[in-house]
Amino acid sequence: MDLKKTNAPVNTTTYNKTIIEEPTGNVYEAITIIARRANQINSEIKKELIDKLDEFATYNDSLEEIFENKEQIEVSKFYEKLPKPHALAVQEWMDGKIYYKTSK
């Protein structure tokens, strides 16, 4: 998942309910699918962020040598500016990129 190439909004956006429920015919089912995808995206982003921040980890027991790492700050700022996982999931839903299967 390339987070730089997404066109998901960073701010809160109002969506048309009929467009959201159109693929499933049920707004609650659509929201459940979007919520599950948002959880997946959140897990992916969290794992990626932890992996990048582990590169900067220092394993010292002394509190005297705490310093700022500019690269670590830049990585953190990048992830703070990203759209939220639910916004990414809704954008994927609207673009038809989410595969789901019903058990009827």
UniProtKB/TrEMBL annotation:
The protein's name in its UniProt record: RNA polymerase Rpb6
Domain of life: Bacteria
Presence of keyword Cytoplasm: no
Keyword terms of this UniProt record: DNA-directed RNA polymerase, Transcription
InterPro entries: Pol_omega/Rpo6/RPB6 (IPR006110)
Coiled-coil spans in chain: none
Single GO cellular component term: DNA-directed RNA polymerase complex
One function term, GO molecular function aspect: DNA-directed RNA polymerase activity
One BP term from GO: DNA-templated transcription
Segments passing through the bilayer: none
